[in-house]
Design brief:
With 326 residues, the chain is mainly α. The chain is built from 13 helices and 2 strands, in the order ααββααααααααααα. The protein is flat.
C-alpha cells in the first residue's frame, strides 16, 4: 500500500497531519533558500563597496599597487600592497603551523583520553579562550611575550641562523614576526581545538570498537579510525582559524613593528599586515589614504576567499572518508 493510499484511508486527521508536514517542509526550504540568498547578497554588497571606495585611490596611485614596498598615500600618493600581503600570509602561516598540532592534540585528549570529569571542564576552558578580547592578547603579548622571547630568539639565531627564518643580523628579538605569530596562534587555537573536538566525537562508535576488537592500541585506533574520519573537519577548523588570523587587527597592531619590507627573517623587527596597517592608519588618513586602506582591505577579502576555496577543494577530495564513516 502506497503512502498516498494510506493517507486517503487514514481519514481527515492523517490528511491534515500530512498537509501540515508538507507546508512545514516548504516553509523550511523557503527560509533556508532565503538565508543563502541573503548571505550571497551581503558578500556581493561588501565586494561592491570595497571596489567602489578603492577605485579613486587606485587611480590616484603613482606607484605599483601590487609591487611597491612603499606606503605613503597621504603625502606622495605612492602605495603598494606587496609587503603587507606578504606579512599577512607569513604571520598567519606561522600561527597555523604552531596552533594546529597543539589544537588537534588537545581535541584528541579531551575526546578520547581525558576522564569525563576532566574533559568537560577542560573543554569549557578551551571554549572560553575564544571569548577573550583580542586587545587583551595584544597587551599580553606586548608586555609579557615580547620581552620573554628575546633570549630564545638570540639562541635560535646563534644555533639555527643558517636557516632563513632564523637568520638576521643586528637587533634580535623585540617586536618581531615570531612574536606576532605566537600571539595569533594562541588566539586561533581555541577555534581549531573546539571544532576538531566536536568532529572527533562524531566518529562512529562502531568503527572505534572494531579497531580495538582487532587488537589495535588506542593510538592505532585513533590513527586508523578517528583521524581519517575527522580529517575534513580538522582542515575546515584550520582554515577557519587561518581566516581569523589573517583578519586580526588590534593584537597584531600592538606587536608588529609596522615596517614595509619583505623579509622572511622572523627574529628581527620586520613585518606588518594588512589588518594592522588599517588599524594604525585609518584615523589620520586623507581621502586618498582612506581609499588606499580600503583597497588593501579588498585584497585581504580576496585572499580570504581564495583560502576558503582552496580548503573546500581539499575537503571535497576527502569525501570518501566521510562516506566510509557514515
Amino acid at each position: 500500500m502506497t503512502t498516498d493510499t494510506k493517507i486517503r484511508d487514514g481519514g481527515p486527521a492523517m490528511r491534515r497531519s500530512a498537509s501540515r508536514r508538507t507546508s512545514g517542509e516548504g516553509l523550511f526550504k523557503f527560509l533556508a533558500t532565503a538565508a543563502g540568498v541573503v548571505l550571497l547578497a551581503i558578500m556581493a554588497a561588501i565586494a561592491v563597496f570595497l571596489i567602489a571606495e578603492a577605485i579613486p585611490a587606485l587611480q590616484a596611485n603613482k606607484g605599483g599597487f601590487f609591487t611597491d614596498l612603499v606606503w605613503e598615500p597621504n603625502s606622495s600618493q605612492v602605495f603598494g600592497i606587496g609587503a603587507l600581503a606578504f606579512g599577512t600570509v607569513l604571520s598567519s602561516g606561522i600561527a597555523l603551523v604552531i596552533a594546529t598540532p597543539i589544537a588537534v592534540g588537545v581535541a584528541l585528549f579531551i575526546s578520547h583520553y581525558a576522564p569525563r570529569r576532566l574533559a568537560g571542564p577542560l573543554g569549557y576552558l578551551i571554549d572560553l579562550l575564544a571569548a577573550v578580547p583580542s586587545v587583551i592578547y595584544g597587551l599580553w603579548g606586548l608586555a609579557f611575550l615580547v620581552p620573554l622571547l628575546r633570549e630564545p630568539s638570540r639562541w635560535l639565531n646563534e644555533h639555527l641562523g643558517w636557516f632563513p627564518l632564523f637568520a638576521g643580523e643586528g637587533a634580535i628579538g623585540g617586536k618581531t614576526m615570531l612574536a606576532g605569530g605566537i600571539v595569533l596562534a594562541i588566539m586561533i587555537l581555541p577555534i581549531i581545538a573546539a571544532i576538531s573536538r566536536e568532529v572527533f566525537l562524531q566518529v562512529p562508535r562502531m568503527n572505534e570498537e572494531a579497531a580495538l576488537a582487532l587488537g589495535a592500541t588506542r593510538w592505532e585506533m585513533i590513527r586508523m579510525a578517528v583521524l581519517p574520519f575527522g580529517r575534513p573537519g580538522v582542515i575546515s577548523a584550520a582554515m577557519l582559524g587561518l581566516g581569523r588570523a589573517m583578519g586580526e587587527t588590534i593584537a597584531v597592531a600592538l606587536i608588529f613593528p609596522a615596517t614595509f619590507d619583505i623579509s622572511v627573517q622572523i627574529l628581527t623587527p620586520h613585518g606588518n599586515s594588512i589588518a594592522a596597517n588599517i588599524a594604525n592608519g585609518f584615523g589620520e588618513a586623507t581621502p586618498i589614504g582612506r581609499g588606499a586602506l580600503i583597497a588593501s582591505g579588498l585584497v585581504l577579502f580576496v585572499i580570504t576567499l581564495l583560502v576558503n576555496m582552496a580548503a573546500r577543494m581539499i575537503i571535497n577530495r576527502r569525501k570518501e572518508y566521510a562516506r566510509a564513516g557514515a
